[in-house]
Amino acid sequence: MSQEPLRVAVIIGSVRNGRFGPTPARWIAAEAARREGLEVDVIDLATVWLPDVLSESAEVPTPQAVRDLAPWLARADAFIVVTPEYNHSYPASLKNAVDWFVDEWKAKPVAFVSYGGTAGGLRAVAHLREVFPGLHAITVRNSVAFPGCWDAFDEAGRPRDTEGCGGAAEAMLDQLVWWGRTLREARARRPYPG
Question: Does a structural domain hold residue 1?
């Protein structure tokens, strides 16, 4: 009996000019797509043009960019957030994207690929681990980090430490798939409360 593919959305969290985010995002999307039973979408926040100011009430019409992105997030069974570290945290563009949506995150797992200087973006991930549970999402334990990211990839966009990065990605994806399938089955049996 074949199982419906698990839909994974890779979200590129940085919108800064000259950003590095698409490089690790392409790599992790390719790693995930190599797995049987995964369907991978890449969502680049630099191209979705979410408004910077949130609506003040439910009576205000939802902006078109939010309406356009909502089905992509709702369709996903799991997320991989690719984030840099800006000033010891994650970028405002990513928080803005998280805050525009509520139900789309509920009872779904979130994994992280981070990059940056010495800390490899891990302080950004630590802060995001506090944000997503507030939206009733589960963050998976393992992540992938790229300290010194500008030297961590070759000219073709592949990690130089293929063994270490590949092992970290495999462990993270194993957890993401487990949570993704488990939570999708649970949501199908019984709607998530709240």
Answer: no
